[in-house]
Amino acid sequence: MKSPLNHRGLALLPLLLLAGCNTVVMNPSGDIAAQQARLVVVSTLLMLLIVVPVIALTLFFAWKYRQSNTKAKYEPDWDHSTKLELVIWGAPLLIIIVLGLLTWISTHKLDPYRPLDRIDEKRPLAAGVKPLEVQVVALDWKWLFIYPEQGIATVNELVTPVDVPVRYKITASNVMNAFYVPALAGMIYAMPSMETQLNAVINKPGVYDGFSANYSGAGFSHMRFKFHGVSNADFDAWVAKVKASGSTGSVALDRASYQVLEKPSEKEPVRYYNAVSADLYDAILNRCVGDGATCINKMMADDIVRAKTAAELCNTPTPVPNLSMKSNNATRY
Questions:
Q1: Among residues 170, 175, 256, 257, which one has the least CA distance to residue 210?
Q2: What is the DSSP string of 11-35?
Q3: Alpha-carbon 130 to chain mean position
Q4: Per-residue pLDDT reduced to its tens digit, 159-207
Q5: Which residues are bridge partners to 139 per DSSP?
Q6: FRET pair for 267, CA 20 to 30 Å: which of 99, 129, 143, 195?
């Protein structure tokens, strides 16, 4: 027979396991994710202002008005209290108003499309600083990262400098996915034929997990990558290493090699491309990588022209035929 001490040890085992967890969502390394974590904490505390008293009062009333407590005041005809109504309705209303203000402010302040105005809470972003651009493409089932300014691309490895604002332009080749690095910022969807954006910054050097947070088929479980936050010098060295990888058999990422890459595959290793076609990302976004394919943006532009022409024709007055019979040879009825 097991002793009570063994039972207590088993009960405490989950707590011991949780004590070693790195709760990255609530302790992130990027300023945007840190602001989101604080918003979660503040919102939870505000809601607990109602939840905790309600639970405490429920237990208190159950204890005070138990059947065996003959000293409890019995009022079967009681039905109203203005003070109690003010507390019951007033306190939740005030909390809802505060939560609404927090939501409205945070929705604008933490808009992923909004350019950054600070590095962290103590350092504003200097005027004129141009963010690093990274083009993100969700493939089946891997991630493609294109650095247009550096002229390189990688598969399943993302590297950015610490304390440098980065603008991520995100799309997908086929199935909708979700780009998510918990240490960096919140989840942003990647959708075919559409571009979403994320402006974010990583503030601490390290290696962080990134993955797809939206189920996209058989290889979804392995659709993961490593995100490296490095110094400026290390980033420049990494770019140089990727560009030099051509001597080890790496090929340039053009339309032909992309069509091979986009074929579904699982557990894809890290891969480098030392050169990238300048128009590749736009072709991926507009779904016209293949030969002879018409780009979606061109189709839309042509549709606008056709619609405008049709509208102009509809608005043009139709000439009225001259029905006057001036000719002597005209047939009269």
A1: 170
A2: HHHHHHHHHT---TTTS-SBHHHHH
A3: 22
A4: 999 999 999 999 999 899 999 999 999 999 999 999 999 999 999 999 9
A5: 142
A6: 195
